[in-house]
Task: structure prediction
Amino acid sequence: MSKPTPTHSITAAITAVGGYVPPDKLTNADLEKMVDTQDEWIRTRTGIHERRILKGAGLGTSDLLVPAILDLCKKRKIDPSEIDCVIVATITPDYPFPSTANVLCEKIGAKNAWGFDLAGACSGFLYGLTTGASLIESGRYKKVIVAGADKMSSIIDYKDRNTCIIFGDGGGAVLLEPNDEGYGVLDSILKSDGSGRKYLHTHAGGSVHPTTEETVRNRQHYVYQEGAAVFKHAIKGMAEAVVELLDKTKLTSDQIQWLVPHQANIRIIEGTAERAGIPSERVMLNIHKYGNTTAGTLPLCLWDYESKIKKGDHLILAAFGGGFTWGATLVKWGS
Ligand code: COA
Result:
């Protein structure tokens, strides 16, 4: 029997990034006409100026990812048929089944790929990165796409001012490939605590409370959030995960060129950066343009800032979301 190939020296490098936001904007001024809110309140309490909304009958989360992944393939000069696996982090799948990944692979012509959806809410992309990196590190796969996208407008109640001001639609993806020079996804701290679900969830539509006329009438298919409780846990969870990751990897905040935080609220981002000791000029920010796109925020940040990231830069991606789920991941940029 031949010896197994040693895999310890293989890391999963990010070799391309793609992103997409739909063209239709929902501004704070638009929201002022829909619920009792004010542009000034939204800007100061959240940092959001506008968000994008995917309009058009029959369009879902996979349609946010088709242009993102085709963009990525074009940049990397590969054909979608070369992709081995597609992981889609989302809480707004196209259908209960089949998976969004399954639909997406057919739409982009990734005819040699398998794939699956991963539900980690706002931390979904982080969970996906570690999962995808493990597939590369195992030596079994050479091209793994990790995507994060949400059509949040499909589960938001535009009569509820607590939630409708925050969320938007969009998504992005990265390509992971084997690397033997130490670039890529280096380490992670990932956490989960299901007791937080009382503060942030969608009540109905799953197997516990299947859809009935009553659940629809009671508006229980929309996102429910107790914002202040989520806010408190998010700052603490994200900051502690970043600090724990720095400690584990023996890096100091000076050695981190970019903090890539989940875009939930500008005050959560600033609080996390401050506690982690990373100055604002090294913190990626696009919440003003897109709002919170749930699993889409982290790849959309990488997509927006791609031209500013240099080979060898250390990035810490950090997220917090429904569940609760949270964590931080260290990446050494390799492209
Ligand atoms: N416009 C105007 N006023 C609003 C409002 C809106 N859209 N939404 C809430 N308010 C009001 C509240 O009713 C409350 O009024 P009251 O004091 O008379 O009761 C007041 O503003 C303060 O509400 P509160 O919920 O304490 O505000 P906040 O400062 O916590 O900000 C969020 C609310 C939702 C922006 C904030 O809690 C948040 O961002 N939470 C985390 C959200 C998040 O990250 N979720 C995604 C998962 S990571």
